[in-house]
Amino acid sequence: MIDSHKLKKRDVYLNKLVAFRDTEPVKVITGIRRCGKSSLLKLMVEHLKETGISADQIIEMNFESHAFNKMSADDFYDYVRERVLPDKRMYFFFDELQRIENWEETVNSFRVDFNCDIYITGSNAYLLSSEYATYLSGRCVEIKMLPLSFSEFIYFHGFRVEKRDNLLGGKSLRVIAENGEIYELREIFEAYMRFGGMPGIADVGFNQERAMVLLDGIYSTVVVRDILEREKRRGQKHITDPVLLRKIILFLADNIGSNISVSSIGNTLVNEGLLNDDKRKGNPSVHTVQAYVNALIESYFFYDIKRFDMKGKEYLRTLGKYYIADIGLRNYLLGFRDRDNGHVLENIVYFELLRRGFDVAIGKVDALEVDFIATKADEKIYVQVTQSMMSEDVRKRELAPLQKINDNYEKIILSMEPGLDSVYEGIKSCHLINWLIGQE
C-alpha cells in the first residue's frame, strides 16, 4: 500500500491546467466523483507555490466541507472579497461548486471585480450547461478528468514497468513492485480489470472487501448527491425513484458496448413491472427512462457514444452504445465475472482514446461495424477490440469492416492475443496491454 498522504502526480491533467494558468478563461475540471479532481486542484496549488506564489494569494474552498455547505451566493462573495489582497494576483480554487445556488453569477463577479485566476471542479455536467455558458459568455475551458488509465494505475500502486531481453532476442515487459517483487504485466492488468481506476483504490490496496466499500461510497454519493439531491434542488420531479434509477444503472452496466436504445431499456423495465406502459399517453416510459439516462450521463457515471455512417457521412440517431466510467464500479454493481471480457476491454479502450484527446464514434460500414473511429485534428484511427486473434473465424470477422474502408488512416485491432502476424493487409494487430502503456 502506498503513502496515501503524498499526492500522486496526474501530469496529463496538471500540464493542461499549467498551460492555461493566468489566462482569462475559468478552468473547469469535470468528471465523476472521486476520480481525482480535488487532488488535481491541490497539485495546481503546489505548482503555484513552487513558482513563487505566496499562500495568502491562494483561496481554497471545498463546498463538500461542513464549513461552507450552508453558504449562499452572497456569503460566498463576501468570504472571498474579505481575503483578496488588493495589490496582488489572486488564485481561486473552488471544489464541487455546484452545491452553491447561483454560483455562476458570483464567479462571474470575481472575474470582473478582482485580479484573479479561477479554477473550479464539479461532478455534474450542469457546470457547463447553457445557463453557465450565458453567465461566463463562453469564457471557460473544460478539463475532462477520468479515473486512472492503466499506466496511471501502475504508477499509483507503486509499480514500474521494465523492459528486458528475452531468450529469442526480442524484448519483453515485466512489472517490479516497490518491495522488489516481480509480476507479469498481465497480472497487473487483471487487477485493473477487477478493481478499476478510482485513485482511492491505491490507498486500500488490492483488498476486495475494502475496495467494494470504497466503490459503494462512490456509487451512493453519485446517486444521492449528483442525481437525486440535484433534481430536488432544481425543483424538478423527473427523477424521484431510487429503485428505478438503480435498475437502469444495472441495465446499462450489464450492457456496456451493446447496441441499445432507450426504448429497449424501457421495454425491459415494463416487462419487469417497474414502469407502466401507457400507449394512450405516447408511452411515457420512454420519456421517463430518457430523463434517468440523461442524469447518469450528466453525472459522468456513463458515457454515450453515437454511430457514424461512413458511407452517408452522418451520425445516426438509433442504437448507440453506453460505457461505464469505471470498470471497478461495474464489478461492484454486477459482481465479478468473466463472461463478457470483450465488452470490458472495449470499455477500457474507449476511455483510453478519450484520454488521448480523441473524439470517438462507432463506425457503420454497410451492414458491418467498426468498434471505434477516433479523430482529432488531422489524425484518425480505426480501432477494433477483441479478446483474441488466434481463431481464423475471429480474424475474418474483425478484419472485414476495416478492409471495407478505403482511406489511408491507421487501422488497428487490439487484443489480448494478437496472433503470429503483426499486420494483415496493412491492418495492424497489436497487444492491447502494450498499446495501453504506449509500447506498441
Topology of helices and strands:
Elements lengths: L10 H9 L6 E5 L6 H14 L7 E5 L10 H11 L6 E6 L7 H11 L2 E7 L7 H7 L3 E5 L5 H7 L3 E6 L5 E6 L5 E3 H11 L5 H4 L3 H26 L8 H13 L7 H10 L12 H15 L3 E8 L4 E11 L2 H8 L6 H15 L3 E7 L2 E9 L2 E10 L3 H12 L6 E8 L5 E2 L2 E5 H5 L4
Helix pairs in contact: 1-2, 3-4, 4-5, 7-13, 11-12
Please give a handful of descriptors for the protein shown.
440 residues, alpha/beta, Rossmann fold, Methyl-cpg-binding Protein 2, Chain A, eight-stranded mixed β-sheet
Structure description:
The strands form three sheets. An eight-stranded mixed beta sheet has the order 10-9-11-12-13-14-16-15. A five-stranded parallel beta sheet has the order 2-3-4-1-5, with helices on both faces. It has helices at 11-19, 37-50, 73-83, 103-113, 130-136, 150-156, 185-195, 201-204, 208-233, 242-254, 262-271, 284-298, 327-334, 341-355, 392-403, 432-436, and strands at residues 26-30, 58-62, 90-95, 116-122, 140-144, 160-165, 171-176, 182-184, 302-309, 314-324, 359-365, 368-376, 379-388, 410-417, 423-424, 427-431. Helix 1 (11-19) crosses helix 2 (37-50), helix 3 packs parallel to helix 4 and helix 11 (262-271) crosses helix 12. The protein is built from 16 helices and 16 strands. It has 440 residues and is an alpha/beta fold. 35% of the residues are buried.
Average pLDDT reading: 89
> Can you tell me the CATH architecture of the largest domain?
3-Layer(aba) Sandwich
Largest sheet: 8 strands, mixed
| Cα shape | globular
Low-pLDDT sequence parts = none
Quote the distance from N terminus to C terminus: 30 Å
Question: In the CATH hierarchy, what is the superfamily of the largest domain?
Answer: P-loop containing nucleotide triphosphate hydrolases
